[in-house]
Amino acid sequence: MSPSPVKSPSSAGARKTDITLAPADKLKREIQAVLTDELARDRYRSGHGRYGGFAYVAAEAYFHLAGGYDAGLQPMQLKHRGKSHWWLLDSSGRVIDLTLAPAETSSFPYHRGHRRPFRYTPAGISRRAQAIVERVESARG
Fold this sequence. Notes:
Helices cover 24% and strands 16% of the residues. The chain has 141 residues and is an alpha+beta fold.
């Protein structure tokens, strides 16, 4: 599966970007398969992607399952149109957006995002992200 280019604005003066969506890998599909409504946050459901409302928690779970900073991942965040959106950049600078289903594309302005660490918790991971990690590991057997 080849990476999908992110749609960029074509209006005059728009900042040109070379951001590419990473193809949906096995881990992304595993995480999306275990997402259930109690893990989402309604206030963040923006209609951005099939899995809107899961951006933070799914990105945090992917980050931990994939090896975090040691694997070259970088958490990113942008408040856009009043809603906070989270995604990851991989070591090649491609966008891993857990709210997008495998065939979805996006016109989200990822190029405006900021590097942000996930919030601190004594456990090192939020309860909701830990639930996703446990579900993925359980499904693997």
